[in-house]
Structure formats: structure tokens, C-alpha cells
């Protein structure tokens, strides 16, 4: 093979030196790599979003129930059981365990002040009992009841009510939208064929003396942490400084009620409770002590009932006795 | 007819063996270069996705600044957060000149800031101002929101606060996520994570409100990292406490700021009325996210032991639930 001439060797060396220089430059630039610059460039390439601002009010597609003072901020959205958590995240379980069918949400701005807005949530819970349950479980203590239908209350910035199988929330961005919220609520009840003309039969289970009527709540599942216990009404009684929670659940038949009483008793014992004996004067009843609290459990016909976490034995027995007498009626 | 060959100065006769040898060498060189290029090729470029991998995210903590917690009582968020940061060594101990700061806000819901379901806009603006004052080159905020991102940022007031304070808003585009596995985690395996903003940042600050939560009992600083998770993440609600521990394992923040000025004590995590709020007038600033949550539990009337994710995170060595161990600075500024 012919030996390379000097000129060829020099050219070859020059090329190698140039390649080494390029490699060194790449290495140097790469060592000062700033990912934020590239991320920013990439973001620009992917069309940087326009300035983020409040959705503009739109006159189009205003629903018939909308008061004149409000204007839609965009189309309404509907969520089913699969997508409910996309709207309300961890609170979805509460609705899903109570017969949830769908949620429709819409935002409306005040016509005279676009920065004041409210959001309407209409939960279709399938049946009135389910709607009553999610309404009562979330009821705010500071809420003021008002006359709208079966059950309705308002707070400083929101209105909550049930309308047939629907549970409705209206939440505003500022406290100056009280009139708009009430007008919207009245229109919704007025425009919906499932008007609330009958109150749910709830307080009828509980003896009225010292009952906090606003505390009646329907729990749909996992009541008191017991997975077999569902569809239970609870209510609070004031006994001087003490508060006692009473509960009633109407089962399919007497056998089911008796079986549930037995199962719940076992659950209490498994969780640190001990059986004291029958509640004086009440057939088919038992009194338990669970750590520092007292629990009574009884069954009468299809009813499973009792008191929960009373601070004293006397208060538990007193309310259980009243409850039993009411069930006998 | 015999062809006449005219030789150039560089042409000489080459043996067949020599020709084949040189051709093979050239072919090998080309193949090796091509293989090296293929091996090093990043199809997504910087900040993009590169496929599934086991990956420990950058550690944003500043070990030399130590483990601290400050619990400041007062009604003015701007004053309490300033006092809290000062008590743990000052923002300058954590943010240096040229830092690219990422603030993980809670912008989950498109609800008004009055409901305190999301990070308070004034608090975001003040922390950003302090970061810039300390020399940060950039401040960005990110969250993979539950509701539509633009609506969330706009309606919570965070977009306006960000714009006025020079904070860049990172919307959770698909291209910013990468499927990763966090080493040692139980549940974050081949799961999409909002990775690009984390890779671009040099410091990470979490800012979130104290909230009741229907599934986990509470939503505080560790739960706040949920907003870095993509995909159908609600499936993790089935084992929420383990998942929150995994989130704390995934993220080692520079600082966490837990806003308990108004705590959502019922109907969380969305709330729905100011009636769900209680004025607890407390700002917790810490370098230990487990300690911050342990302190925050009291604002909801709970003990750390009532919230299993705190114990799980402590067991995993991610911090301490015994805040006294950190000699907390308790400050009352009225």
C-alpha cells in the first residue's frame, strides 16, 4: 500500500482536530444545559395559552329557569358515576354510596357585575330518600332553614335544597348574591315537575321531647363504621348538658331487624365493647359499654333502633325508653 | 476494445483483499456511528416523555438548612407566612440567586377563593415575591387540577395573582407527563406524573390549605402532591393513606406552607360554603412535610394518629409526627 504523503497527513490531522473541537463544544454546551429554557421553548411551540381570565358571560342558551339578573358563563357540564370524581374529587364516594345517577353543573354571572358569579349543582340521586340522605349528611349547622320545599337552608354564600330526587347546591363567589340564589332556587323548584309538596317521613320515628329536629339525618351505608348497617335515621337529643344520638332503621321484616340487632351487638363487642344486660323495661334490647360510652340496641317489629355513644348510662336508657314507646305507638 | 485508464496522482492499483478490508472498516465505522446515535437519541427532547422508568425525582430539600417547623398564629396571611419563613432561617436560606422555583399550589377546583378549597392567591403572590427578592431567576406554579385547568386558575384568583407577581402558570399538558415508577413506593408504578416542571425546577415549595377530606380525613401538605399525578388517579382513593405516603416518598420539597388561616373543617375536600370553614388563624411553615401535617391535624380537631397516612409516612422515614422533636418555633403575631 502506498504511504500517505505529508500533505495528506496534515489534512487528516486538521480534520481530526476540527472534529475534536466540535465534540468539546458540544460537551461544554451540554454541561450548561438549562431544561427550563427548552421546556419554555417547547411550551411556545405547543401554543402558549392565552391569558387566563374569567369566562365571559354569554347570552346564548340561557335555561328557562334562569332569573333575569343572571347570565350563563358557558355551557353546563354533566357527570356520571364514572366521572363524578372529576368534578368533586374525594367527596364523590358520599354520593356514589347513596344512589347517585348524575350531576349537572352550570355557572352564571351577575348581569350587573360579571365578577360576581355562582355555580349550580344539580345531583340526580335516583330517588327522594337518597337526595334527603346527602342533604342531611352535609347539612351545615349554621344554615338557616327557609320555606322552599321539603327541605332547604341557606348560608352566607350558598343555598341547599332537595327537589324530588334532586339534591341541589347553589354556591356563590360573594355574599352579595343572596337574592340571585334565592330567585334561582325558587325558579328551579317552580319549573321542575317533581315539586316538593310532601316532606319526607323522618321526624315521625323520633319522640319529639327535647329532639333537635334539624339534626335528623339519613345515613345510607357503613353507619357507625359497621358495614352491614345501612339506611339508618339518626337524631340528636339534648339532655341538659349532654347530647344523645338516637337511631332508627326500618327493615324489610322483623326477622331482619332482629338479625341486625344481633350482628351489631357482636360488632360492638369485637370493637372493645362489653354487654351489660337488657335495657330495663324494653323487651328485645341490650345495653353495651364501649370504652367510656354507652350503646343501646333494640328491635321491635321491623324496626332496628337504639342510642349511640351516650356519655352516661342513664341518658342512654332514658332515650332508648322514649324511642321504644314511640315505636310501640 | 481495451479501455485506457488514466491514472490520477492519488490513484494506485489496489489489491482485492485491501479493497475488501477498507470497505468493511468503513462499513463498520458507519454502522457504529449510526448505532451510537440511535442509542443516544431522545425522541421527546428535553422535558419530554422518555417512556416508563424507575425514577427517583430530584431532591429539592436543602439539608444544610436543617429540619424546622414554625407555627405562627395570626389572621393576616402575608404577615404570618413572613414570620414563619423568618423563623425557619429566612427564605434566603433556601432560595439562592438563579434558582428556578416551582410552587405546587392546590388549584384543584374551579371554586371561589372564599371557600378556601384552593391555595389562597394572596399567599401565592407573597411567597413568589419573597422568592424573587431572594434572587430566584423564575417562579412557576403547577397543578394537575381536577376541574378544567383554565377555569380553576381563573376562578380561584390564582391566575390573576400569578400574573401580577410574575409567576408563570404551567398548565398540565399531556406532553409534560411521564410514566414512572417511584422506587420503594407501593402504588406509583408505571404511572403518569407531571414530571417536566419538576425536572425544570431547582427548588420546590408546596402551598396548600388545611382541609377536611371525605376519604383521607384530611388534605394537607403531603396530599397536595396528588396534583402531580395524572391518569385516572381517583382509583388511588381505595388505598388513600398508602398513596399519600407514596406521594411523600416521591417528593422531597424545599419548604411546605400549610395555610390554616381558615380551615375547612367539614364537607371537604370541596366544601361548598363559608359555613364549612373555621377561623383557626394558623400558618405552618416547615421543611418536614410529615411534621407540618401532624401540626395541621390539630386545626381539624384531630390527632396525628387519627390520620393513618401520617403514621405511614413517619414509618417510611419521611419525617416526624412528633413536632416537638423539631423544637417548633411558636409565634403569635395577633
Which key phrases capture this entry?
heterodimer, A: 329 residues, alpha+beta, Protein Transport Mog1p, Chain A, eight-stranded antiparallel beta sheet, seven-stranded antiparallel beta sheet, 15 strands, 31% helix, 30% strand, elongated, B: 334 residues, alpha/beta, Rossmann fold, nine-stranded mixed beta sheet, 12 strands, disordered N terminus
Write the layout of secondary structure elements.
The complex is a heterodimer of chains A (329) and B (334).
Chain A lengths: L5 H26 L3 H11 L24 E3 L4 E3 L5 H4 L3 H5 L5 E9 L2 E12 L3 H10 L6 E2 L5 E4 L3 E6 L2 E7 L5 H14 L19 E9 L12 E8 L2 E9 L3 H17 L2 E5 L7 E6 L2 E8 L2 E8 L2 H16 L1
Antiparallel strand pairs in A: 1-3, 2-3, 3-4, 4-8, 5-6, 6-7, 7-8, 9-10, 10-11, 11-15, 12-13, 13-14, 14-15
Chain B lengths: L15 H25 L12 E2 L14 E5 L3 H11 L12 E6 L15 H13 L4 E5 L6 H7 L2 H8 L2 E3 L6 E5 L9 E4 L1 H5 L2 E11 L3 E3 L1 H4 L15 H11 L4 E10 L12 E10 L2 H9 L10 H8 L13 E4 L2
Parallel strand pairs in B: 1-6, 2-12, 3-4, 3-8, 4-5, 8-10
Antiparallel strand pairs in B: 2-11, 6-7, 8-9, 10-11
Order of H and E elements of chain B: HEEHEHEHHEEEHEEHHEEHHE
CATH topology type of the largest domain in chain A = Protein Transport Mog1p, Chain A
- Structural class based on helices, strands and sheet pairing of chain A: alpha+beta
| Spatial shape of chain A | elongated
Q: What's the level 1 CATH class of chain B?
A: Alpha Beta
Range of helix content of chain A: 25-40%
Percent strand of chain B equals 15-25%
Q: How many helix segments of chain B?
A: 10
Description:
The complex is a heterodimer of chains A (329) and B (334). Chain A is of the alpha+beta class. Chain A has helices spanning 6-31, 35-45, 85-88, 92-96, 128-137, 178-191, 254-270, 313-328, and strands at residues 70-72, 77-79, 102-110, 113-124, 144-145, 151-154, 158-163, 166-172, 211-219, 232-239, 242-250, 273-277, 285-290, 293-300, 303-310. Chain A has 8 helices and 15 strands. Mean pLDDT of chain A is 88; it is low at 43-48. With 334 residues, chain B is an alpha/beta fold. Chain B has one domain (53-332): LarA, N-terminal domain (Rossmann fold), CATH 3.40.50. In chain B, helix 3 packs parallel to helix 5 (158-165) and helix 8 crosses helix 10. Chain B is elongated and about 95 Å long. The interface between A and B is large, with 44 and 53 residues.
